Amino acid sequence: MRSRSELRSVDEHRRVVAGLITARPAVSVAIADALGLVLAEDVTAPLSLPGFDNSAMDGYAVLTEDIATAGADTPVRLPVAEDIPAGRTDIPTLAPGTAHRIMTGAPLPTGATTIVPVESTDGGVDTVTIRESKRPGQHIRRAGEDVTAGTTVLQAGQVVTPAALGLAAALGLRELVVIPRQRVLVVSTGTELVTAGTPLQPGQIYESNGAMLAAAVRDAGGEVVASPMTGDDVDAFRQTLHDHVGNADLILTTGGVSAGAYEVVKDALGQGGESTVEFVKVAMQPGMPQGAGSVDGTPAVTLPGNPVSALVSFEVFVRPALRAAMGLSDVERPRRTATLTEDLTSPRGKRQFRRGVFDPADDTVTGYGPPASHHLRWLASANCLLELDEDTAEVAAGSRVQVWDLR
Ligand code: AMP
Ligand code: MG
């Protein structure tokens, strides 16, 4: 057993895991599939927006001079010569002394210099009575005033948001070049594990890490290749890896890395060969037993089996590395400081991550549930991780502490 001074620090293990996971080459994907991904190239507008001069209001296209005297008590009457709904593809010409009824987004007739909104008229169909004059160009959207063809409208490194996607669609683009999602294989180990739907025998439990980590991977922006489970049998574990690894960019395992017997992940990957996984103890609570390296060239991170340890380890080590490899700039959870509402203890020499409830209204944080690593219920309703550093053994109510905001 190594002494505490030989434990790997949290920061060192974060660096090791971050170094394993690298970005995939850029790919072109359908714009709908680009949501949340990072652009690998600038996007240049192939056309202008608006593409043509059009009306900003439902109303009447007229010549400014023809309605120069129009007012509440001095109405001007004009015959309505054309009806121009949005989508009309020919562009009629407006003759002086006439009006065209026009809808929002419809092309401006040649010769028209202003739009009178329907609200300033009687809404007539054959003739229209206009009770307000307008300046030239009023209520007209000019071609190119939003986007000029040839300009850079989205930049490499930018996350594709719904609005960015909308702009790409408006420009008639069908694909965007992005940094693709990391593909993760999530393998749960344990002979005691059973799938929901199967009645439990004494000593068995329902598998939960697979569902939880697969969700965490997706939540981080990654893609789940598969989330199989396997018993504590080295050959079965190896076969499961072999069957599912496919194009995975990362293998994530849970369980089988502690100090007991039947530690299947350690037994299968700790003996060299095609594995470079190094099993270490990290100065952290929960989540001390960890491993990282590669299996047959695929990066692998082996997390402990206790559900709280597994998810906290994912948050601390894997999530930031995955997000960085997808080119995202906000790879970390937001860190805040908050006032602790109670006295807490923490093991000296280890960084402790307690589940907490952060209350933004009064800027406080309260530890939530026991620090032990099997308490899923508390984890499920916590909204932050409360981080107590390696040098802290006791912290008093009223102290300012750091939290990782999970909201
Ligand atoms: P291990 O790290 O394999 O020694 O497992 C530590 C604890 O976590 C044991 O109580 C396991 O039953 C539990 N555990 C391991 N893997 C899972 C899983 N996939 N789902 C739920 N509990 C698990
Ligand atoms: Mg196990």
UniProtKB/TrEMBL annotation:
Functional description taken from the UniProt entry: Catalyzes the insertion of molybdate into adenylated molybdopterin with the concomitant release of AMP.
Alphabetized UniProt keyword annotations: Magnesium, Metal-binding, Molybdenum, Molybdenum cofactor biosynthesis, Transferase
One GO cellular component term: cytosol
Molecular function terms, GO-annotated: metal ion binding; molybdopterin molybdotransferase activity
Pfam families in the cross-refs: MoCF_biosynth, MoeA_C, MoeA_N
Transmembrane segments: none
Superkingdom: Bacteria
Protein name per Swiss-Prot or TrEMBL: Molybdopterin molybdenumtransferase
InterPro entries: MoaB/Mog-like_dom_sf (IPR036425), MoaB/Mog_dom (IPR001453), MoeA-like (IPR038987), MoeA_C_domain_IV (IPR005111), MoeA_C_domain_IV_sf (IPR036688), MoeA_linker/N (IPR005110), MoeA_linker/N_sf (IPR036135)
Enzyme Commission number: 2.10.1.1
Cofactor: Mg(2+)
Pathway(s) it belongs to: Cofactor biosynthesis; molybdopterin biosynthesis
Domain MoaB/Mog as annotated: residue spans: 185-324
Reaction(s) catalysed (UniProt annotation): adenylyl-molybdopterin + molybdate = Mo-molybdopterin + AMP + H(+)
A GO BP entry: Mo-molybdopterin cofactor biosynthetic process
Family named by the database record: Belongs to the MoeA family.
